[in-house]
Amino acid sequence: MVNPYLQNEIRTASPEALVVRLYERAILCAREARELTEAQQAETRNARLRRALDIVNELRSSLDMDRGGEIAANLDALYEFVSHRLLAAGMQSEGEPIEDALRILEILVEPWREIAHGARAAS
Predict the structure, then answer these.
(1) For residue 35, with 0-12 CB atoms within 10 Å meaning exposed, 13-18 middle and 19 or more buried, which class applies?
(2) Which residues contact 77 (CB under 8 A, 6 or more apart)?
């Protein structure tokens, strides 16, 4: 079922706010996967890991390597690391790879939140 409020929020959000939402969703999915690791629910856990990985891949594919310079290259490397850790988590039953991915995602979302807040205040 499609949530019309969510659709409207996404349609009217700034690009910066959309990036924040992607990060937040990836973090949520990774956290859920971590909790499911402890509960031994492999199928649901792997679905959450795949969703987090899909989001990270989307963020990575949106990088403008030509105009982004060193920042884009550094983000690309971080996204690659996060992707590898999420994939490793899918092959292991322990939570350490998920924790590694979460640490990076939680660090990266903060500047985007500040940027989105600044963009919202300016408009």
Answers:
(1) middle
(2) none
Query: For 37-45, which contacts have Cβ atoms below 8 Å and span 24 or more sequence positions?
Result: 37/89, 37/93, 37/94, 37/95, 37/98, 38/95, 40/93, 42/93
Averaged pLDDT of the chain:
89
Q: Is the pTM of this model over 0.85?
A: yes
CB 90 within 8 A of CB 19: no
pLDDT, average across residues 80-96: 91
114: DSSP letter = H
What local confidence, expressed as pLDDT, does residue 119 receive? 72
Cβ atoms of residues 20 and 113 within 8 Å:
yes
Give the tens place of pLDDT for each residue, 34-65. Answer: 998 766 788 899 999 999 999 999 999 999 99
52-90 burial: b if 16+ Cβ within 10 Å, else e: bbebbeebbeeeeeeeeeeebeebbebbeebbebbebbb
